[in-house]
Each structure stands twice: as structure tokens, then as C-alpha cells.
Amino acid sequence: MQTDTSFQSLALSAPLLANLDSLGYTEMTPIQAASLPLILQQRDVIAQAKTGSGKTAAFSLGILAKLNPMYFAIQGLVICPTRELADQVANELRRLARAIDNVKVLTLCGGTAMRPQIVSLEHGAHIVVGTPGRLIDHISRETIKLSTVQTLVLDEADRMVDMGFYDDIVHIVNACSPRRQTLLFSATFPDDIRKASEQLMHEPAEVKVDSQH
Ligand code: ADP
Ligand code: MG
After folding, report:
1. Which structural domain range is residue 80 located in?
2. What is the residue with the minimal CA distance to atom 26 of ligand 1?
3. How far apart are CA 142 and CA 195, in angstroms?
4. ipTM of the complex model
5. What is the CATH number for 115?
6. Cβ of residue 60 lying under 6 Å from some atom of ligand 1
7. Is residue 1 domain-resident?
8. Of these four, 4, 22, 47, 179, which has the most CB atoms within 10 Å of its CB?
9. What's residue 212's pLDDT?
10. Does any domain span residue 2?
């Protein structure tokens, strides 16, 4: 476990560090300090910490640290249980991505028309944030190509399993590159999540933060 909790101690680019500073992110939260060094070493990571502990920035920085903005293909995919959460994650990703020129973040959720999403996918994106049902829909219509995904995030994995998305998630994960890094974030770690991690992840490191401070 690392003791220096400043973002400056991480192997992040100067623009990303400067942007974190401008957002008022000076110290890492405990789950960030525990998970980011492993994430930046390209390990698969299971991170368990309660709501409000800063999990979004942890995986977002993992995506952004290795994003190549010159390569216009989906390099990061975040799967979230609900549209509200997907919108929150996309907003945080966009704030953190301001450090890098022209990063396109696209949300793909149900409850909105399919056609504009297909047009957006044709125009391209670097990062997609979506809900399981709509992602499956795009995969089956072949309107999305996930073989270029190098960072895959399962956010609020316990909620997604509770909502019955387990099989959908396996299907989406299997559409991504086998060489991807997989990050799983959850507030709890029930048996279903352990099963998912064994099936979908490669020698994951487990980090757990019990209290918020
Ligand atoms: P979680 O996903 O763990 O529930 P969030 O990622 O939504 O939590 O983070 C909660 C809040 O904390 C957000 O408003 C976010 O902007 C803020 N935050 C995250 N990391 C830091 C940090 N290192 N310093 C200050 N604020 C932070
Ligand atoms: Mg969260």
C-alpha cells in the first residue's frame, strides 16, 4: 500500500496532473491511493469501497493515462447499471479528460432513440459509457466495435448483478479485446461478483477500503 497520497506521486502526464490540481483534487482518496498504482501498472483490479469514495476518478484516470487521442477508436468502455450513473461517469470523465485535446466520450443508454447513437458511433469515440441492455443492442446490430477496447470498467458491479445483467455483462466483455485491462468497482463483494471476476478477469488484484476516511 502506498503512503504518499498526492496524485503527483503517480506516473501520470503533466497535463493530467495539472488538470487534477485545477479541479481541486490534491490528495487521493483512500480507494484511489490503494487502486491507482495497480491500475497504472496495467493490473486487473477489483476495488471495493462505499459510495462517494472517489471510485470514478480512479478508473477514469486508468482509462485516460493510456488513451491515445490520435487513435480514433473505442479504447475505454465503462458499463454502468443505470442511465443516471452513466451520465455522472461521463461527466466526470469529460472533466478529467479536459487535460487531453479532443477526447470524445459517448454515452449509450436505453430510453433514448437508437438512430442518433448509431450516427454518433459512426463519427467515432475514444470512450463509451453505457448501460448493459443498450450496449448489447449495438453489439447485435453490429453498430459498435469493441475489439479495440483496452480498458474495460464494470462500475457498480454488485448493482448490475442484482438487476439481472450478469449474462449481458459476460456477452459485452467477450466482445472486447482479450488483451484488455479489466477493472471492477463495487460497493460490496458477494459470491456473484467473485464468480464474475474469476470468469472475466486475469489475476485481479483486490483492494478494499472499509471506511470513507
Ligand atoms: P463513488 O463512485 O465511489 O461513489 P465518486 O467517484 O462519484 O464516488 O466521487 C464522489 C465525489 O468525490 C465526486 O464529486 C468527485 O468529484 C469527488 N472526488 C473524487 N476524487 C476526489 C479527490 N481526490 N479529491 C477531491 N474530490 C474528489
Ligand atoms: Mg461510483
Report:
1. 7-208
2. 25
3. 28
4. 0.98
5. 3.40.50.300
6. no
7. no
8. 47
9. 47
10. no
Q: Locate the ligand 1 atom nearest the alpha carbon of residue 88 and give its number.
A: 7
Structural domains in the chain (count): 1
Beta bridge partners of 78: 129, 153
Query: What are the E-state strand segments in 141-204?
Result: 151-154, 181-186
Q: Is 87 helix (H, G, I), strand (E, B) or coil?
A: helix
If you average pLDDT over residues 102-108, what whole number do you get? 97
Question: How many whole angstroms from 100 Cα to the centroid of ligand 2?
Answer: 23
Query: Environment class of residue 143 by beta-carbon count within 10 Å: exposed (0-12), middle (13-18) or buried (19+)?
Result: middle
In this predicted model, what pLDDT tens digit does every residue of 155-170 receive, in sequence order? Answer: 999 999 999 999 999 9
> Is any atom of ligand 1 closer than 6 Å to the C-beta of 28?
yes
Residue 186, ligand 1, Cβ within 6 A: no
| Whether pLDDT at 211 is above 70 | no
In this prediction, residue 92 carries a pLDDT of 98
- Helix-helix angle 55-65:14-22, to 10 degrees: 150
Let me know if residue 39 belongs to a domain: yes
Please identify, by atom number, the ligand 1 atom nearest to the C-alpha of residue 31.
3
Residue 58 and residue 35 in contact, taking contact as beta carbons nearer than 8 Å: yes
User: Does the residue 74 lie in any domain?
Assistant: yes
Q: What is the pTM of this model?
A: 0.96
